[in-house]
């Protein structure tokens, strides 16, 4: 399998850079997409599927293609890989199995569901080595043998500026693995319990919060402990960010599952069209003071319990000359 890089035009030299907003992403385009029955037990965001598998797959293929093209048009470099297999139903969400970090560091993660462990791809890692300056790769996947899991930037929402790793406890976020990651990559862990409106634990942190350069979206009401809720809100605002509080309904609509990227004309916030529609005029006004919103139609992908943030593995590495 080979990557087809969709290259954007260079960003103007006057554009302000942010370590929080990657300029490039990895995406996986599935040819046989279907929501993963093996992950439905603890992912309340997944939806029952109607219609044929062939129809689902073709819709998902078109949605991923359209997202990749829209990001490239916005000035983001997209490294698009094909998944032609049938054994990796969640491969469209690559941010769970690897992450990249300034200084040339790459991390590979232990996955909770055995069906997801096959998503790790050597060709993606090789592309990173060839196109970017990679100094080392830290592989945590062996922790799966001890039933210790940490599903990448789904389990953690990373503040690359303040060096904080926000993490909601779940089957997919083990505190031992989190501490190990934070020690290796110089982050401070901020851990909390989070639940949806029905009281069910939220499976991934990145569905309830997004941290940008000057703004953060977060479902504060999902954090059960009032003191911890206030501490998280204060931590975000003390860093100079405008905090946009999301309702339970907006979290269900994936408004927290967004990612700030560095585009041609400045920072953009990539999120689903469903998420964008759920925002109030006041919330949009706060966001648009810092970023340009880029709504993307991914209704089929969202049936699998993830949205735009889950689809994009940000590249925080320096390109080779």
Automatic annotation (TrEMBL):
InterPro entries: Amdntrnsf_FN0238 (IPR014541). Gene3D superfamilies: L-arginine/glycine Amidinotransferase, Chain A. PANTHER family: AMIDINOTRANSFERASE (PTHR43224). This is Arginine deiminase-related protein.
């Amino acid at each position: 399998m080979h990557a087809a890089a969709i290259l954007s035009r260079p960003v103007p030299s006057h554009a302000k850079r942010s370590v929080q907003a990657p300029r490039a992403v990895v995406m996986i385009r599935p040819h046989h997409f279907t929501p993963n029955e093996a992950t439905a037990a603890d992912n309340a965001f997944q939806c029952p599927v109607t219609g044929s598998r062939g129809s689902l797959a073709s819709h998902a293929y078109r949605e991923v293609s359209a997202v990749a093209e829209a990001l490239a048009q916005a000035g983001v470099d997209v490294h698009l890989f094909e998944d032609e297999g049938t054994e990796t139903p969640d491969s469209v969400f690559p941010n769970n199995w690897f992450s990249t970090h300034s200084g040339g560091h790459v991390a590979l993660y232990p996955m909770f569901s055995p069906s997801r462990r096959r998503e790790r791809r050597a060709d993606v890692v090789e592309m990173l080595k060839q196109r970017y300056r990679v100094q080392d790769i830290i592989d945590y996947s062996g922790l799966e043998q001890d039933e210790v899991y940490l599903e990448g930037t789904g389990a953690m929402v990373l503040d690359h500026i303040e060096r904080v790793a926000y993490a909601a406890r779940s089957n997919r976020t083990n505190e031992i693995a989190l501490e190990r990651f934070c020690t290796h990559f110089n982050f401070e862990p901020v851990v909390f319990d989070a639940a949806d409106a029905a009281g069910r634990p939220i499976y991934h942190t990145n569905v309830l919060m997004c941290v940008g350069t000057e703004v953060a979206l977060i479902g504060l009401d999902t954090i059960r402990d009032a003191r911890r809720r206030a501490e998280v809100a204060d931590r975000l605002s003390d860093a100079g960010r405008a905090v946009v509080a999301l309702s339970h309904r907006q979290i269900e609509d994936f408004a927290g599952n967004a990612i700030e990227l560095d585009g041609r004309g400045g920072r953009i916030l990539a999120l689903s069209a469903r998420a964008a529609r759920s925002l109030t005029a006041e919330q949009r006004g706060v966001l648009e003071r810092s970023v340009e919103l880029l709504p993307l139609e991914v209704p089929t992908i969202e049936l699998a319990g993830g949205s735009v943030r889950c689809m994009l593995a940000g590249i925080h590495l320096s390109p080779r000359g």
